Amino acid sequence: MTCRDIVYPLTHDLIDLLDLAEPEFPALGEFRQALPGFFPYAVRMRYDGALYPSREETVAALEIARRLRGSVYELLPPEAHP
């Protein structure tokens, strides 16, 4: 969002961030269903030992994160790629 001068809050709420990014980057909309499941892990997991995901949940989340990262890289200008 920074490369498009979109002002965004400092938040762990990925849906709030997606709401801001999606008008400029519609391709990110495909992740709308998956992102709410990540929210509890952003903060609560630090304080709630019972919240740790299973191996299957972890593998699925990593795959979603890899796909999202790949989509974001495709949207970035070439000079912004890591």
Structure description:
With 82 residues, the chain is mainly α. It has one domain (2-80). 45% of the residues lie in helices and 0% in strands. It has four helices and no strands. It has helices spanning 14-21, 39-42, 44-47, 55-75.
Fraction in beta strands:
under 5%
End-to-end distance: 16 Å
Provide mean pLDDT, rounded: 87
Number of helices: 4
Domain count: the total is: 1
* SSE succession: HHHH
Describe the structure using short key phrases:
mainly alpha, 45% helix
Strand-helix topology:
Blueprint: H1 14-21, H2 39-42, H3 44-47, H4 55-75
In short:
The protein is an all-alpha fold and 82 residues long. The protein is 45% helix and 0% strand.
